[in-house]
C-alpha cells in the first residue's frame, strides 16, 4: 500500500517569504511535492486570507488551519474544529489594551478590526484593517479568534512576558519582531496538526516563527527557514534558506524517511 504523506506549511516568512506573493521557485516546489504528498496550510491568518493565496496560485489545499489552529477547515470547506477566545477573556484583554494604549488588530474570520495602520497594505491580502471610532464597543460584541498586538520593537520582549503572566488562560506567541499573537488556551498549530494527522504515515512541517514551534514538535520531520530566531530553529529537524530548498532535500530523502 502506498504511504500517505502530508506537508503542512506556514505562510508568511516560509511559503511566502515577502508576505506578498509565492516565489516562482517555491510554487514549482509545491507542484513537485504533489507527486508524493498532500498539502495543507497552517497560519496565523484567517481562512479568507488563505483562500486569497490558494486562489491566486491555483493551490490545492487539503486543510486550512487558520488563527494558529483556532479554526480548521477541510478541502470541502467543512469546519473540523473551531475555538474562539471566550467572551470574558476578550473583555479583559480589551480593557488591558485600552488602558495601555497598545496598537492591535483583532480577527473574527471575515475582517480585521483595530487601531493599527499597516505600513504595507499590499501584505493584507484583500483584507484591510477597519479602524472604527467605537473600536472597543464593536469588538466586545464579536466572536474573535485572534488578536495581533503590535508593540514597538524595543519593548516587544517585555510586553510578551507581561502578557503571558497577566493572561495565563490565553495562548500568547511572539511572531515577528513587532507582533504578538493571542488565541484561546490550548490553541496551537501543533494541536491542529494532531487533529488532522492520524490518517497519514508521515507528516512534514515548514515554518519560521515562534508559532511554528508546536508544529515542528508534532511533525515527523520539520524544516525551519534560516532567517528564524535561534530558539525556533532548534526545534526543527533541518534549517534551509527557502521552501524550495526544503522540498529538494525532502525529495532526495523521502524513501529513507518512510523506511524508518
From TrEMBL:
| Species assigned in the record | Streptococcus pantholopis
| SUPFAM superfamilies documented for this protein | HAD-like
Its lineage opens with:
Bacteria, Bacillati, Bacillota, Bacilli, Lactobacillales
UniProt-recorded Gene Ontology molecular function terms: magnesium ion binding; phosphatase activity
Q: Which domain of life is it from?
A: Bacteria
InterPro entries per the UniProt record, alphabetical: HAD-like_sf (IPR036412), HAD-SF_hydro_IIB (IPR006379), HAD_sf (IPR023214)
Any one Gene Ontology cellular component term annotated for this protein: cytosol
Q: Which PANTHER family match?
A: HAD SUPERFAMILY HYDROLASE-LIKE, TYPE 3, PHOSPHOSERINE PHOSPHATASE
Query: Which Pfam families does UniProt cross-reference here?
Result: Hydrolase_3 (PF08282)
What protein does this entry describe? Haloacid dehalogenase
Amino acid at each position: 500500500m502506498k504511504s500517505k504523506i502530508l506537508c503542512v506549511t506556514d505562510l508568511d516568512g516560509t511559503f511566502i517569504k515577502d508576505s506578498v506573493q509565492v516565489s516562482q521557485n517555491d510554487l514549482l516546489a509545491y507542484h513537485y511535492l504533489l507527486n508524493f504528498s498532500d498539502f495543507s496550510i497552517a497560519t496565523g491568518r484567517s481562512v479568507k486570507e488563505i483562500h486569497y493565496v490558494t486562489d491566486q496560485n491555483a493551490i490545492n489545499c487539503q486543510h486550512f488551519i487558520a488563527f494558529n489552529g483556532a479554526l480548521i477547515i477541510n478541502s470541502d470547506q467543512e469546519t473540523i474544529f473551531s475555538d474562539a477566545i471566550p467572551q470574558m477573556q476578550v473583555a479583559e484583554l480589551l480593557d488591558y489594551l485600552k488602558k495601555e494604549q497598545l496598537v492591535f488588530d483583532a480577527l473574527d474570520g471575515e475582517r480585521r478590526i483595530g487601531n493599527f495602520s499597516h505600513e504595507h497594505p499590499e501584505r493584507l491580502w484583500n483584507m484591510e484593517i477597519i479602524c472604527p471610532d467605537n473600536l472597543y464597543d464593536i469588538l466586545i460584541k464579536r466572536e474573535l479568534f485572534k488578536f495581533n498586538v503590535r508593540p514597538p520593537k524595543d519593548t516587544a520582549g517585555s510586553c510578551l512576558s507581561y502578557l503571558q503572566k497577566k493572561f495565563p488562560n490565553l495562548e500568547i506567541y511572539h511572531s515577528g519582531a513587532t507582533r504578538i499573537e493571542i488565541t484561546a488556551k490550548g490553541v496551537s498549530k501543533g494541536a491542529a496538526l494532531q487533529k488532522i494527522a492520524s490518517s497519514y504515515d508521515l507528516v512534514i512541517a515548514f515554518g519560521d516563527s515562534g508559532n511554528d514551534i508546536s508544529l515542528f514538535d508534532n511533525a515527523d520531520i520539520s524544516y525551519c527557514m534560516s532567517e528564524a530566531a535561534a530558539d525556533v530553529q532548534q526545534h526543527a529537524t533541518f534549517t534551509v534558506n527557502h521552501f524550495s530548498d526544503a522540498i529538494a532535500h525532502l525529495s532526495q530523502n523521502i524513501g529513507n524517511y518512510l523506511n524508518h
